[in-house]
Amino acid sequence: MSTLQFWKPGTSGPGSSLDRATETEENVVPSAPSSGAISIQSARERLPIFKHREKLLYCMEKYGVVILVGQTGSGKTTQLPQYLYEAGWAADGNIIACTQPRRVSATSVANRVATEVGTILGEEVGYTIRFEDVSDKQKTRILYLTDGMLFRETLVDPLLSRYSVIMIDEAHERSIYTDLILGLLKKIRRKRPSLRIIVSSATLDATGFRDYFCAGNSPDEATIVSLEGRMYPVEVAYLQEPTADYVRKAAETVWSIHMQQSAGDILVFLTGREEIERCLQELSEYLPTLPRNAPRLKVLALHAGLTTDEQLAVFEPADRGTRKVIISTNIAEASVTIEGIKFVVDSGFVKIRTYNPTSALSSLATVPVSLASATQRAGRAGRTSAGICYRLYPESALRSMPATTPPEITRTDLTTPILQLKSLGVDDLMKFEWVTGPPAEAVLRALENLVAAGMVGEDGRLTVVGEKVAECPVEVNIARMLFASKEYKCGEEMLTIAAMTAVQDVFVIPDGAAGALAELERRKFTAEEGDHLTLLNAYNAFARYGRAASWCKAHALSFRAMSRAVSIRAQLKKYMQRFGLPLESCQGDARRLRECLVSGYWRNGARWVADGTYRSVRGNVTLHVHPNSVLFTRKPRSGWVVFHEMEETKKTQIRILTEIEPDWLLKYGHSFRDKHTGVAVS
Ligand code: CDP
Ligand code: MG
After folding, report:
1. pLDDT for position 29
2. Quick one: which of 436, 410, 429, 568 has its CA closest to 503?
3. Which of 423, 511, 592, 621 would be a feasible disulfide site paired with 616, CB 3.0-4.6 Å?
4. How many CB atoms lie within 10 A of CB 608?
5. Any atom of ligand 1 within 6 Å of the Cβ of 379
């Protein structure tokens, strides 16, 4: 039946196929539905963290910082904030905050906790993510928020005075804002010792965090609490040969598990939405061959682009007689727990943001996971019973994997974070107590960018514009375009473009025949100048035709993305009004708009070359146009473009392009270039 070539160390030799292939159909029983009947309270008491409740509450009184280590699913995220709430830490109007590195975990966990507390989401329990605030100024006592939002809050409330306890969750991921907020919290604790901090991590690197908080403080500043978690054994199977297409292999593996293995749900790790959708597509081709008496298969996706309801669907137990398959990004590695997983299929890859300070290009790159991640992913199969993890790579690949993923602060563009730090009064970056210091070159580049953009003066201090931009909830480049729109008289359009580039997957273009039709629909919005204007056209049409879901469906647009753009636009509009930026329209003058785009994207210029690819202005990197771009098959008349973002998979792709005149780049880039040639800038 299956041609999969897996080899499980310790169970069977190389060359065997999946070794439970001998199981008869009777053995292939559907997964039993879980928990339905047990009360929420008893489910809470069965979590590993429950036994540690008193000890945790005691440590919270005694220590300033509690470092909490426990496996995924032990109850750290959902339970500890509730224990603190029950113990009175949210009395007198105080709030208990819990940060998440990702939007999707903040919303899903807040939802769960609201149910457990028995409140409507947005009242006692709420969440705040960028452009979306489901919390109540008076009522909310437990607040889940992204680490970026908490960091931003320090700009208006430097001592974070509304919080009694701040839990920095998923600290092992070492997202850039986790690192920055830890640095600030260490400072804040010296000024406001009543604030309590919890640093929670799914891996065992706790001593590093303790040493960090104790350095320069009393040794009693921080303590570690470990939750022992029960884990069932997980067998690991490897591919014999590397695969050229792990997405297809993942679908094939899911299918063989379904046909050959007994009950238990499957969790698949891929790197992003596009891969997940392709895998869903591949699996749907197998479905018609499912024998009539075989258990059903329910396939669900889990990634950041989903609505809250769609995300919550993955937590629902499947019906009797149905096996659940969840195809997820890295989010299911540690941030969310899904019950009933017995099989893990691991692509061995993850998408991370990387930054090359030399070319100053930032991109999303698909890279092999670290050993720590691979172990963590496999562990997802052993939470409720023994399980199996199928790794879609040969065992020999382990030798070249890094032990851990380097902290994001060492591999990201620091322009926006440094602007924000300066706005907080952290002018001397050398004196800041970093958990891990960023590379000097990346800091220098960021400072140069900020100087070139007029946000930091030659004295190293923020300029008036810099102060304002730091407050805007968008990246520096987008904020700069909003400010430049005053000069180009196109604030109205720039606002829309800023909102549309902040949402993902605006156009819904399926594969196959339906895709061709959708493509025709999209052409109705196409502007020959490029993607930014195409997005603008789509938004304007959406607004003109009543913002209806049915209209979106008929025009190959995602209603969800469009609605989000409307809400983001409304919020950014308030910032523009506050900063006195006029909302003028360019009245169809695309040239003004394109020039204004260059004010923000001047670092992202590229030149067309004869083979249809581009070369980056800085670094001369070969760039391929993303197939979704309206410039995918067409040479821009001037031969030059700016682009919104870059993504590295097998090749480096650029997304959201607009044609420009090359001399516009000089206008914005010159001070930067001068700095590099050593010529003084006026
Ligand atoms: O944070 P940690 O990984 O330690 O665990 P958690 O997220 O607090 O999850 C504890 C338990 O809550 C899990 O075992 C799940 O059973 C349940 N949970 C859920 O059912 N739905 C969610 N959205 C989140 C958690
Ligand atoms: Mg958690």
Report:
1. 33
2. 568
3. 621
4. 21
5. no
Distance 70 CA to ligand 1 centre (A): 12
Measured from the CB, is residue 105 less than 6 Å from ligand 1? no
* 437 Cα to the center of ligand 2, angstroms: 26
Q: What is the pLDDT of residue 480?
A: 92
Instruction: Tell me the mean pLDDT in the region 66-73.
Output: 92
Kindly give the distance from the C-alpha atom of residue 70 to the centroid of ligand 2, in angstroms, as a whole number.
Answer: 9
533 lines ligand 1 (CB under 6 A): no
* Residue type, position 572, single letter: L
Region 161-178: mean pLDDT is: 96
User: What separation in Å is there between the alpha carbon of 409 and the centre of ligand 1?
Assistant: 28
Q: How far apart are the first and last CA of the chain?
A: 72
Per-residue model confidence as pLDDT tens digits over 338-370: 889 999 999 999 999 888 877 777 788 899 999
DSSP state string for 325-351: EEEE-THHHHT---TTEEEEEE-SEEE
Please choose, from the candidates 343, 433, 427, 406, the residue with its C-alpha nearest in 3D space to the C-alpha of residue 174. 406
357 within ligand 1 shell (Cβ under 6 A): no
Q: How far is the C-alpha of 136 from the C-alpha of 141, rounded, in Å?
A: 9
Neighbours of ion ligand 2 (CB under 5 A): 76-77
Any ligand 1 atom below 6 A from CB of 380: no
Q: Taking a C-beta distance cutoff of 8 angstroms, is the pair 499, 565 a contact?
A: yes
Strands (E), 486-621: 605-608, 614-616
List the residue whose alpha carbon is closest to atom 14 of ligand 1. Answer: 73
Tens-digit pLDDT profile for residues 17-64? 333 322 233 333 333 334 443 688 899 999 999 999 999 999 999 999
How many Cα atoms within 13 Å fall on the side-chain side of residue 550?
A: 1
Tell me: the pLDDT tens digits for 187-213?
Answer: 999 999 999 999 999 876 788 999 999
Ligand 1, residue 200: give the atom nearest the CA. Answer: 1
246-263 core/surface letters (b: 16 or more CB in 10 A; e: else)? bbebbbbbbbbbbbbbbb
Is the CB of 335 within 6 Å of ligand 1?
no
Per-residue pLDDT at 38: 61
Measured distance CA(485)–CA(506) in Å, rounded = 24
Residue closest via CA to ligand 1's atom 13 equals 73
The overall average pLDDT reported for the chain is: 88
| DSSP line for 360-386 | TEEEEEEEEPPHHHHHHHHHGGGSSS-
339 lines ligand 1 (CB under 6 A): yes
Substitution site in 41, 45, 78 for ligand 1 pocket (most atoms within 8 Å of beta carbon): 78
Task: Show the domains of the chain with their CATH numbers.
Answer: 6-25+231-406 (3.40.50.300), 35-227 (3.40.50.300), 415-586 (1.20.120.1080), 596-681 (no CATH)
Mutate to test the pocket of ligand 1, among 34, 44, 112 (most ligand atoms within 8 A of CB): 112
Query: Region 371-378: what's the mean pLDDT?
Result: 93
